[in-house]
Amino acid sequence: MLDFKKEDIATILVRYNVAMEKTMTPDEAAEQLYPKDKLLKAVAVAIYDGEEDDVIDALDALLDAGKDPLKLIDEALLPGMAVVSALYDEGIIFLPNVMMSADAMLEGIDYCKSKTKEIPQSKGTVICHVAEGDVHDIGKNIVAALLRADGFDVIDLGRDVPVDEVVSKAAEVKPVMVTGTALMTTTMYAFKEVNDKMVEKGLNIPFACGGGAVNQEFVESYSLGVYGEEAAEAAKFANYILKNGANIDNLRDEFHFH
Amino acid sequence: MTVNRYTKMAYANADEMVFGRAKFPVKGGLGLEIGAGYAIPELNYAPRPQAGVSKDALVKEYERITKDAMARIVQIGAPAVVLETEHVQQMSNNPSWGAEIAHVQKSILEEYHEEYGVKCGLRHTIGDIREDRDYLALRGSKNDVMLDAFEQCASQGADFLSIESMGGKEVFDYAIVRDDIAGVLFGIGVLGTSDMEFVWQNIASIAKKTGRVAAGDTDCAQANTAMFIAGGLLDKNLAHTTAIVARCIAAARSLAAYESGATGPGKDCGYENTIVKAISGVPITQEGKTSTCAHSDVMGNLTMQCCDMWSNESVEYHGEFGGTTVQVWVESLAYDCSLMNTALKTGNEKVLRDLLMLSDRYRDPQGYVLAYDNAYRVGEAIAKNGNDTYLRSKAAAETCCTILDEGVKSGKLSLTKFELNALAAVQKDLAALPTEKSKFVENCMTKYKAEIPVFKTENYVL
User: Fold this and answer.
1) Which residue of B31, B89, B362, B438 is most buried, as measured by CB atoms within 10 A?
2) Which of A7, A15, A148, A192 should be substituted to probe chain B, the one whose Cβ sees the most B Cβ atoms within 10 Å?
3) What is the tens place of the pLDDT at every residue in A7-24?
4) Domain boundaries, chain A
5) Under CATH, to which class is A22-114 assigned?
6) Do B49 and A218 lie within an 8 Å CB cutoff?
7) What is the ipTM metric for this complex?
8) How far is B128 from chain A (nearest CA, A)?
9) Where are the alpha helices (DSSP H) in B50-177?
């Protein structure tokens, strides 16, 4: 069998991920981002570790110290998750870490909610769905988890969602954004129908679409479409809309790379 | 049909394996013998989005696709081709749609075969439509419709019958984004294998009844999901070491088609197929550098090493400078096959195989393990434990980790610290798993029933 000498390999291929890997370990990088307060830090560490029981223990310590349960969402849980999101954005940790942290943080939010009768204010609502006729939902599940982890309320309509159901829900709750994912060329055509019916109803809501066969050119063919190449972009879109408004041209200028 | 487990390797050693030649060639279509000493292009395509609006529009689209592709095959003097139609959901949910398309396509192939003598065949990959909106519904009325689609398409001209079956995906999807290797193993190796046995015994019966070929499956729904999430070298979504462990488990799963009556050719996107071929000797289709129209991978040459048919995975039908996409890509595939066939006829096939393999061997841990010599070792681990679907999946995963360890120690396979840590975590998790299937299944049933709302145990008979 043919083989290379070790020194010849670099003339054929370059493992850029090895060459470019950051020297700092994820734990070291996280340490720099944790809150200074000891009790808040314990929440952040538990979220970073994805340990749901530890999150509850850390929240209990804060509640015992007299903290308001609702304020803990904004002051302990979301900042803790922000550490994880920042590390992910910098390429220091990978998606499974984020998902496990999100699970832990959401458990913490439910716990805080159970400790009060007040209703927390979210950053905004996003509707997520998989195109009609399409049942491939792992991308949508990741999008929904990352949006929740960023503090958005998510209405997850699931998969194979009829066009009219998406439109009527959008009309009902007037979300910050609607997301649509599809794997196949034939099912992504439903996005155009969603778009046209939202326009008919005067719903000028950004419609973030991505997944398998979906591409920027297709998404730009309908007026509300904003193309997302990665699941993690959904939260960036939603935050941008909160800050800058729902102008589709501006969103495309900011986030369309091709 | 019964299930006959593989407990021995089809090949005495890895070096026996080459492209274009399989231990057990398969006859089918119009004059084809797959794996009989020549490599064949297998073209795959997708209709344009708007073509799905009606049956007539869809039939017309596939007619155009087929005519375009066959015309180009003749224009460049290619001796053989297989067309693969992967059903869009309308074609499987309405079996008469798929059947009419199969009939129209096959009629065109027959014209080209009669007029020019082109060896050709038609694969139909029926959609795995066995699900309700919220859940997999693997048994029951959806399964009946799916099997009807198989039978109608076979009756109307589909020569090779395939599917990308989805069993276990609900558990896998949950587990893979949480680095839960037990869940990955359960989803692919236990649930997926079990479902394949159910599905493939039925498909094999239909193939026998209609005189067609029960071809093969792929773990597209799971191992390819892992590969796509893992992405390129700089993507940060999943360790490539974890993705290749999922792939090796997938080999133990995709093997179940051939244990349940299928004969090959295996499906193109089953990157686990080199392992499967090593164990079973069935011919396989593979994809790589000529499937960049559909997706990127990090082993574009290597996957050609032992293929019997060479595919482009899928391309949307539309115009390009060089013709329509199906013409452009079938031409690329045909020239690749021409090179492989020249190597075969001149006795240089092992040289070309090794060049293809070596050019990607150290690019990524996935290619490293799928290099034919290492793939053969994974196959041996599966065959050694062949009678137990859990233990063979576990052995595949463990052997994968061992191969990666050895690669790192050789100094030739470079992994990031992240990949090394992920590999160590997988090894630790594998070491903690039970040694008996019954215990593993019991543990997983309890855990995933509690954690995954869409996991319906009635879908599986374990």
Assistant:
1) B362
2) A15
3) 999 999 999 999 988 788
4) 22-114, 125-255
5) mainly alpha
6) yes
7) 0.91
8) 10
9) 55-75, 89-93, 95-116, 141-155, 169-176
